[in-house]
């Protein structure tokens, strides 16, 4: 009797687990063209593949990217409008076995350590499907750029000396 109950309970667990399994899967990967050590002002791109692993079409698919700063004491979501990132992508329908591939470009505007994730839902679904996390660190951009400072540092003294010589010749 106990063995029968265990078998029945196991079958029930498998049935309910497959009923609750999300028909969507979301893969996330950093683009190979991303800089190895990005700094403020650089552009990154992330690629997603959203797949319908179910047996029925998914209508009204919506996917979006989220970005969170994870530095200690600065944990907070990031407003992607400032980072020039796409807000969301949609598909009217995604057939069984089909995929939706999307690139998510973003311009880095603040230094720190970040975590990105892409989430997907359907209009009629009850479940949210999220990708694995992708972490990255943004370096501070140098404030002083020698290419801009050097011409000014050399040019100003020459300009002042030239002005003084011109004034002396006039007088």
CATH level-1 class:
Mainly Beta
Anisotropy-based shape: elongated
Q: What is the CATH architecture assignment?
A: Sandwich
Order of helices and strands: HEEEEEEEEEH
Give the biggest sheet: 6 strands, antiparallel
Calculate Rg over CA atoms: 28 Å
- CATH H level: which superfamily? Immunoglobulins
Strand content: 35-45%
Q: Structural class, from helix and strand content?
A: alpha+beta
Number of domains: 1
Give start-end ranges of low-pLDDT stretches: 1-20
Number of helices: 2
Counting DSSP E segments of at least 2 residues, the number of strands comes to 9
Average predicted confidence as pLDDT: 84
CATH topology: Immunoglobulin-like
Measured as a percent range, the helix fraction is 25-40%
Task: Please give a structural write-up.
It is a single chain. This protein has one domain: Immunoglobulin-like (Sandwich). The protein has two helices and nine strands. The chain has helices at residues 2-20, 146-170, and strands at residues 24-30, 43-52, 58-69, 76-77, 88-94, 99-107, 112-121, 129-130, 134-138. The strands form two sheets. Strands 3, 4, 5, 7, 8 and 9 form a six-stranded antiparallel beta sheet that branches. The protein has a three-stranded antiparallel beta sheet with strand order 1-2-6, with no helix packed on it. It is elongated and about 95 Å long.
